[in-house]
Amino acid sequence: MLAHEIRARVARGEVSPREVAQAYLERVRRLDPGLGAFLSLNGRLLEEAEALDPSLPLAGLLVAVKDNIATQGLPTTAGSRLLEGFLPPYEATAVARLKALGALVLGKTNLDEFGMGSSTEHSVFFPTKNPFDPSRVPGGSSGGSAAAVAADLAPLALGSDTGGSVRQPAAFCGVYGLKPTYGRVSRYGLLAYASSLDQIGPLARSVRDLALLLDAVAGPDPRDATSLDQPPRFGEALEAPLRPLRLGVVREGLSGNSRGVERALEEALGVFQGLGFAVREVSWPALLQALAAYYILAPAEASANLARYDGTLYGYRAEGEELWRMVEATRARLGLEVKRRILVGTFVLSSGYYEAYYGRAQAFRRRLKAEARALFQEVDLLLLPTTPHPAFPLGSRPDPLAMYREDLYTVGASLAGLPALSFPAGFEEGLPLGLQLLAPWGEDEGLLRAALAFEEATDRAFLKAPLGEAL
Ligand code: GLN
């Protein structure tokens, strides 16, 4: 059942929050052992559901929360051995806001360690499987959240997106995922990877459900100085009549796409044209270099952010009396990919190399943003694939650069700070495909309105429950 349908049924008194919680817990216990979407479940869920005031606006809604988002009293590991056993003493703003409205945390979902990866295989615990084909990855780093929503183990999920981690798993798992404009959702309580890029984003099985989550979590927060003073108006925006818009298809060197992706793109253009959109091809030359800049800037910020995991503050602390030996032994527990990023990050920031790498990547980021601003003078929305192909097999990207290349189409919106939505748009050999819509800075509401039109025009044809009947 979709989240807004559950909410309506709870509001009419047809089902209680406890019954909803019970049904989802049973489903998770039955299906998650084969998927590995969850790292932990909320052990107090049924009590919390029992005690809930059913007249609260989100009563009966359960949210799966990526395990790099702090949940007070519930384990928060970031998929890392360094935070095994860590119980945050505070709640992320996004989670606190959901709870205040009556939603409950169902459990914490698997991810690539600290959000670094595109397959969820870099989780130190276990890889999550794609619910459409267990031999394939669900994408990453929010792979657990995407798999949980796709398999209807949760009606809603929160993920985080630094360079595509909400959108790419959403595409691979056939669900909707939004990276909001940088600053629309508070980062308070989101374990930092690359702070100038990190955003919490919703995953769901319909645009209306995304809006439901966003109206609850977005908006200014005094605890995050980079949060925007822009209150969310998603529900309202979806009620507004559809404006015929100008849609630009980014064709930038998009040669390496699978045939299914090409077909989905053509078909989507037809649907948007049918809705009255004026469609044209546009050029965003900087997009192709965005990947190189991202893999300089994100590791640079990560190397600074991850310095805090030294055994003195949170989570795991190695044995040893002498401080530096303890720090060394503690940090040795970080996974290989995380260590690689820290090394790359400290290198590009080091004296003598800073200008050649970090400085140039920053200058490039400004150019990419300027190009995007110019494009949005000509068109209202941009359309491009979320990924060049559907989900790849587990274990098929042992080369780190091959894994990085998976993020080709997602890092542009991240570096430019723009809102970007991945929506289900087709299948290739039984695997879901996603396309991406980008909107100008701060126009997240309009983005969702356009996506809703596509969802309704295609009669939700691209939404399938991979594991039999959904709840
Ligand atoms: N795959 C990208 C990376 O590894 C993006 C991850 C993310 O958005 N957290 O950095």
Keywords:
471 residues, alpha/beta, Amidase signature (AS) enzymes, 11-stranded mixed sheet, binds glutamine, GatA, AS_sf, transferase activity, transferase
Would you kindly provide a written description of the structure presented here, covering whatever features stand out?
By secondary structure, this protein is α/β, with parallel strands linked by helices. It contains 16 helices and eleven strands. The protein has a domain of 290 residues: Amidase signature (AS) domain (Amidase signature (AS) enzymes). Helix 2 runs antiparallel to helix 3, helix 7 packs antiparallel against helix 16 and helix 10 packs across helix 13. Bound molecules: glutamine. Glutamine binds next to loops.
Give a nutshell description of this structure.
The active site is at 66 (charge relay system), 141 (charge relay system), 165 (acyl-ester intermediate). The protein is α/β, with parallel strands linked by helices and 471 residues long.
